[in-house]
UniProtKB/TrEMBL annotation:
PROSITE patterns: IG_LIKE, PROKAR_LIPOPROTEIN. The keyword S-adenosyl-L-methionine does not apply. Alpha-beta TR is a heterodimer composed of an alpha and beta chain; disulfide-linked. The alpha-beta TR is associated with the transmembrane signaling CD3 coreceptor proteins to form the TR-CD3 (TcR or TCR). The assembly of alpha-beta TR heterodimers with CD3 occurs in the endoplasmic reticulum where a single alpha-beta TR heterodimer associates with one CD3D-CD3E heterodimer, one CD3G-CD3E heterodimer and one CD247 homodimer forming a stable octameric structure. CD3D-CD3E and CD3G-CD3E heterodimers preferentially associate with TR alpha and TR beta chains, respectively. InterPro entries: Ig-like_dom (IPR007110), Ig-like_dom_sf (IPR036179), Ig-like_fold (IPR013783), Ig_V-set (IPR013106), TCR_alpha_variable (IPR051896). Pfam families: V-set. GO terms for cellular component: T cell receptor complex. This is Ig-like domain-containing protein. Residues 1-20 form the signal peptide. Gene3D superfamilies: Immunoglobulins (2.60.40.10). It is found in: Cell membrane. Keywords: Adaptive immunity, Cell membrane, Disulfide bond, Glycoprotein, Immunity, Membrane, Signal, T cell receptor. It comes from Vombatus ursinus (Common wombat).
Length: 109
């Protein structure tokens, strides 16, 4: 059954013209900082996506979209994100933030 689902997913991806093989790596994977410290989280991806997103998730809550970028930089309050789709990376800069989980994601072409 797993093999059949995998084949169906591959066929769907081919019909939609998107890659199902996108690999996204976030670093550091885990980080502890003292209150008031600034940090940078990086995200690299294997294929050039259509767009890029950063999310925040507080304990016991759902994902909150922070930034949706197709290129360039966005800044909001204590957060700033830079994305370069051609070089396949993005960085999230956080100035003195509460304890949260931050996650990056890509929208395939």
């Amino acid at each position: 059954m797993k093999k059949l689902l995998g084949i169906l997913l591959l066929i769907l991806c081919l019909q939609l013209g998107v890659s199902c093989l996108q690999k996204v790596e976030q670093s550091p994977q885990s980080l502890r900082v003292q209150e008031g410290e600034s940090i940078t989280i990086n995200c690299n991806f294997t294929e050039t996506p259509q767009s890029f997103q950063w999310f925040r998730q507080d304990a016991g809550k759902g994902l909150i979209s922070l930034f949706y970028l197709a290129s360039g930089m966005k800044e909001e309050g204590r957060l700033k994100s830079v994305v370069n789709l051609q070089e396949r990376y993005s960085s999230l800069y956080i100035k003195s933030e509460d304890s949260s989980t931050y996650v990056c994601g890509v929208e395939p072409r």
